[in-house]
Amino acid sequence: MKSRVKGFQEWDQDKKDACHALLNQGIFYPLFLGRQREIYKLFHTMKPKTEAACLLSRKMGKSFTALLLAIEACTRKSGTICRHIFPTQKMSRDVVLPMLNELTAILPSNLMPSSVNRSEGTIRFANGSMICLGGVNPEAVENNRGSICELLILDEFGFADADWDALKYALYSVLYPQLTLSRDGKILFITTPSADPTHPFMTEILPPIISNKQYLTYNVYDSPFLNQEDIDAIIKRYGGVNSPDFRREYLCECFPDSSKVVCPEFSKEKHVIETVEAKPEWLTYMGVDLGLVDNSAFISAYWDHNRNKLVVVDEYFTRGKSLAQLAEVFTTQQDRLVPYMFDSDHIKSTVDVFEIAAFSLRKDHGLRFVRPIKHQVEDSIALLRKWLAEDKIEILPSCVNLVRELAFTEWDSRKTVNKDLARNNTGHGDGLMALCYLCWSVNTRYRPGFASTHQLADILGGY
Q: In this structure, are residues 388 and 375 in contact, taking their beta carbons and an 8 Å threshold?
């Protein structure tokens, strides 16, 4: 069987001996090729109890790289337990175990596993170390329980079941606790981008890892196993470099299907700005989509009458709060608009909530707001899409949830009449709809400091 280490079988004996000498010292660096060595360096510079992520193209040797890291950890220290976890238990066996045959051409015999048990999903070594294979699928997740783990590898996690509650249980109740007593425990996610941009790996797990700079991504052009001729053949097979499947699987791009997204006019590059200087001279607005057991979204903005732009400056997303708690959030979010506010009377809040709750918010909590004039969902979104197309909306980057919803929220494919937004693990487009209500409430013709639009028209010489 061909070795995944290019030309290893053709190395001269001196080179093989030098490689084996390093392997016997627990240094597997020579077995990593090209950009894989950057993964090796990232892994070995991680601090204990931290997470890293590698977003990799097909044909980058993801699982083989992960397996080598696990074997290195096992051979370095006796009694080490590593867990190599896949979306399903069966997948872990089907992917990893055949790779062990390839290792016979690479590793010295004393570093090879002493036993392999497919039914148990265990790879054992003579020094008492062990690699445990498993899956996060609900029917198999409990098999991953254990007392301690030094290395947790989550392979192809972008393709695990997208139920965030089930994945949180797998991570926080079954797997992560095993690193608590570990001195050097590390967590490595290694995957191709999910086909779903709202998958929990993309929305919940990856952002903080990127913020901590524990992240690498490489596409097919970085593969140590392919030349240009190989890549050209792949491109041809996929129908060109613009094929969505090629872009996702081989260029590591994560993007929505433009035929399904609700706001195809939205562009992060065009509509997300770096910062704005707070000046108390604008009309301020808040759009709210309230759900007591579901998500609630508060979107805050001002209308810049000099530039004819709506500038979204703040967001707040929450879930499962009582009316009293939501009323407190409402007041707090209004207060956060004060630096942009012409005066306290120039704020308009639009709240979508059922009638009984609206009555209670006004009577019991003293809130002042109007309720949106409801259209069909597609009609409600029409003004938002128009303003996005005309570049009339700017959003601060701190509004990460709203930006994600604008980029990725899709129509519910089951409804072709009276369209509705698709529900996913992050919600039901709650922030997007709150922004819609806000847009409809904006008075684009009024300028603060003038008594009426008629006075403004007179000063400007008429409309």
A: no
Q: CA distances (Å), 174 to each of 203, 205, 435, in order?
A: 21, 17, 38
Tokens representing residue 159 in the block: 């393709």
Query: Comparing C-alpha atoms, which of 316, 317, 306 is closest to residue 276?
Result: 306
Residue 426 above 70 pLDDT?
no
Give SS3 for 95. helix
Nearest partner of 317 among 426, 438, 421, judged by Cα: 426
Residue ranges of the domains in the chain?
8-251, 268-441
Judging by DSSP bridges, how do beta strands 130-135 and 122-124 pair with one another? antiparallel
Residue 397: both structure tokens together: 């980057």
The number of residues making up the chain comes to 463
List the Cα angle 136/39/45 in 5-degree steps: 100
Nearest partner of 263 among 344, 153, 384, judged by Cα: 384
Tokens 């008492």 locate to 128
Does the domain formed by 268-441 have CATH 3.30.379.10?
no
CATH assignment, 8-251: 3.40.50.300
Task: Tell me the angle at which helices 62-76 and 89-103 cross, rounded to the nearest 10 degrees.
Answer: 70
Q: What is the DSSP letter of 338?
A: G
Query: What is the model's pTM?
Result: 0.67
Q: Name the strand (E) or helix (H) holding 13.
A: helix 13-24
pLDDT at 104: 83
Beta-sheet pairing, 347-352 with 393-395:
unpaired
For residues 402 and 395, the answer to whether their CB atoms sit within 8 Å is yes
d(CA 283, CA 442) in angstroms, rounded, equals: 9
11: left (phi over 0), alpha (psi -120 to 50) or beta: beta
**Contacts of the segment 171-174: beta carbons below 8 A, 24+ positions apart:** 171/136, 174/141, 174/142, 174/144, 174/145
Token couple for 344 = 């306290």
Taking CA 44 as the corner, what is the angle to CA 101 and CA 9, rounded to the nearest 5 degrees? 30
Which 8-state DSSP code applies to residue 205?
I
CB 319 within 8 A of CB 462: no
pLDDT tens digits, one per residue of 130-155: 999 999 999 999 999 998 999 999 99
Longest dimension (CA), the chain: 92
CA distance 215 to 188: 10
Tell me the C-alpha distance between 256 and 67, whole Å: 32
Question: What is the spatial order of strands in the sheet that 295-304 belongs to?
Answer: 347-352, 283-289, 295-304, 309-319, 393-395
The pLDDT of residue 463 is 38
Give the per-residue SS3 of 61-76: CHHHHHHHHHHHHHHH
Closest CA to 403 of 437, 441, 432: 432
